[in-house]
Design goal:
- This protein is α+β, with helices and mostly antiparallel strands and 67 residues long.
- Helix content is 22%, strand content 21%.
- It contains two helices and three strands; from the N terminus they run ααβββ.
- A three-stranded antiparallel β-sheet has the order 1-2-3, with no helix packed on it.
- The protein is globular and about 40 Å long.
- The mean pLDDT is 88.
C-alpha cells in the first residue's frame, strides 16, 4: 500500500528495516516490493560498508563507508 501510494503520487519512498530483528520470511516479503535496496553493515573490526542491490546500472559490491 505504501509503495503504491508513493509511486502514484510521483514520490520517492525510502523505508528502513533491520533484518536482525525480524523473521527472514517477513524481510523477504517486505524487500520484494521495492525496486532497490541499500544495505549497511559493520565488521567486527568496526569497518562500515554499504552496497546497493536491485538497481540496473549500479554495481552491488560492498564499499567502505567512512564516518
Amino acid at each position: 500500500m505504501l509503495t503504491r501510494r508513493a509511486s502514484a503520487a510521483g514520490y520517492f519512498g525510502a523505508f528502513a528495516i533491520d533484518p536482525s530483528t525480524h523473521e527472514e520470511q517477513l524481510v523477504n516479503v517486505m524487500t520484494s516490493v521495492f525496486d532497490g535496496m541499500v544495505e549497511l553493515r559493520e565488521s567486527a573490526s568496526g569497518v562500515r560498508e554499504v552496497r546497493v542491490r536491485g538497481l540496473s546500472g549500479v554495481a552491488s559490491a560492498w564499499h567502505e563507508f567512512p564516518l
